Amino acid sequence: MPQELTTSREAEILEECQNTIGYTFNQPELLRAALTHASGANTRLASNERLEFLGDSVLGLVTVEQVYLRFPELQEGDLTKIKSAVVSRRTCARFSKEMNLGAFMFLGRGMNSHAGKVPANLLADVYESLVGAIFLDGGYEAAKPFILRHLAPEIEAVAENGLGGNFKSQLQQVAQREFNATPLYVTLDEKGPDHGKCFKVAAVIGRHTYAGAWGPTKKEAEQRAAMNAFAQINGEPLPFEHD
Questions:
Q1: Residue 209: is its pLDDT beyond 70?
Q2: Residues 211, 227: contact at Cβ < 8 Å?
Q3: How much is the pLDDT for 172?
Q4: Domain 8-160 architecture
């Protein structure tokens, strides 16, 4: 169960947070729970972990609904990859930073609570838990516009650049936004006769080389390598074998 508000300072923090995020809670104890890391909770059940679980699903539903509507010409596989390009744990952490949620979190002793210094994984968690809290407080009708305030520009950026099936372009966009780097593609191997070669290519972002993928041409192998990179960045299964 969410912890009750115990001090006037807590109430001030929640009021400031609500002003910042542009949503007023009918049940402020839900916001208190959403902002409470396990280290700052009386019990594990009073932390934001359950709300994070719920918020992740709500965020996913809003995302896939919007991608489905925005790209009516694409098949399921392409829609899945666009979803991965639009929202990820890093994206959630960035949304959290934009709202300065780290400054409102209730953390345990020894954890730095100054804005900008909260670990990215905690910032991603608190964004998802906030989505879950808004969903419980005001339903889908309240959660959807809150999510789309940040998510819609991400989807439109994909649409405006005509990236429906161009995963190299999608990866470049994400890499520049999230890592401040441009992907490179390296040929790891090739096999077959000259008239029918296959190529194994891997995407490289900064110092990290992602799982390679085979393709009948270098261009196709690069597209598949970009899709593998997406999967690894988002912690998903690889769509193409790399052995």
A1: yes
A2: no
A3: 87
A4: Orthogonal Bundle (1.10)
Q: Which DSSP category does 36 fall into?
A: B
Judge whether 128 counts as a catalytic residue. Answer: yes
CA distance 99 to 21: 6
Contacts of 118 (CB under 8 A, 6+ apart): 102, 105, 107, 111, 112
56 given a catalytic annotation: yes
| Residue tagged active-site, from 56, 137, 154, 222 | 56
Query: Domain residue spans in the chain?
Result: 8-160, 167-233
One of 128, 137, 154, 222 is an active-site residue; which one? Answer: 128
44: pLDDT strictly greater than 70: no
- Model-level pTM? 0.69
pLDDT over threshold 90, residue 134: yes
Q: Was domain 167-233 assigned CATH 3.30.160.20?
A: yes
Between helices 120-138 and 140-160, what is the axis angle to 10°?
A: 130
d(CA 51, CA 168): 34
| pLDDT given for residue 43 in this prediction | 57
